[in-house]
Amino acid sequence: MRMIVNCILDIKSFILLSVLFLVACQHQAATVSKHQLFVFGTLVEINIWHHDAKQTQQAVDEISATFNVMHHQWHAWKPGRLSTINQALRANQSVLVTTEEAEFIKQTITQAKLSDHMFNPVIGELIHLWGFHTDDYPLLTPPPSKTEIKRLVEQQLTVDDLWFDGLQLSSHNPSVWLDFGGIAKGYAVDRAIRILAKHNITNAIVNAGGDLRSIGSKGGTPWRVAIQSPSDWSLVAELLIDGDEAVFTSGNYQRYKEFDGQRYAHIIDPSTGLPVSEVVSATVITKIGVDADAAATALVVAGSENWLEIAQQMGIDQALIINDQQQCLGTSAMIKRLENLSITCQILN
């Protein structure tokens, strides 16, 4: 009898252990959790494939806090850390920056030089002159005068007007006005990816208003993202991304000034002081958000004649542009990855 009882107990114990094991496995099973934040004037979506809900929430909370700090720190025209830096530079004073701030500013300097200054983070005064330091779009005020534009263009403002002595940042030109609108989202998603890694999350996608960076996959399945038309938001193509990649689009279709029947895009060509008009959008794929963000802006400014050369200078081999005639031009490395392409794209390399 004892042997039978022991046998029954052993069977019950085995069943109990099996149930506990299955429950534990179910608890540890990875699923996609979706989170939304509103920051930088846009909706940020974070999709995470992870097994630990608590760990996931801690990471999202840290990203949210970091993004809110960044939004206030790097705002181009509202009071904050960047306005303090700009006030010092425009008063011909050096300013002590943190190691992290220096790292970011040096990244923007590098990208500006690689782009032949078509991405130019020191033309904040020119952007302000056009009225684009605002959250209220579309603008209906008249454009600035040719004289006002000429005054700033003739100063040939570039990042060469900045220099570092250790962590002391100075400028040669009192008209320098740092504006990181063309690179801030790239820096933000890079920060988010680092935070996720700190929390041992290896599969996620961070999408800041259509500009995104991914790591890993969705349970072994690549992330699927869309490239939209700048004219009517219809689908241009779909793209599968798997692993660590950044996909950024810059365009002149969301924020603009409209006056007397003419539309002026918020992206300014530093060489002319005028809004760009020929290229309506540029999409770039690379590994780092900062690089992709700056490059997408630079390619819009470069135009149909020069975009490929600038992309190559910036180390970008996956890019496409759509011009004002709705023509799509792209690199072979980019075009071959696109699915469900709704327009014909010409391969230029």
UniProtKB/TrEMBL annotation:
Q: Does the keyword Metal-binding apply?
A: yes
The UniProt record lists the EC number as 2.7.1.180
InterPro entries (alphabetical): ApbE (IPR024932), ApbE-like_sf (IPR003374)
- Give me the reactions it catalyses: L-threonyl-[protein] + FAD = FMN-L-threonyl-[protein] + AMP + H(+)
Cofactor(s) recorded in Swiss-Prot or TrEMBL = Mg(2+)
Q: Name one GO molecular function term.
A: metal ion binding
Stored Pfam families:
ApbE
Q: Which UniProt keywords apply?
A: FAD, Flavoprotein, Magnesium, Metal-binding, Transferase
Xref: PROSITE patterns: PROKAR_LIPOPROTEIN
PANTHER family under this entry? FAD:PROTEIN FMN TRANSFERASE (PTHR30040:SF2), THIAMINE BIOSYNTHESIS LIPOPROTEIN APBE (PTHR30040)
Q: What is this protein called?
A: FAD:protein FMN transferase
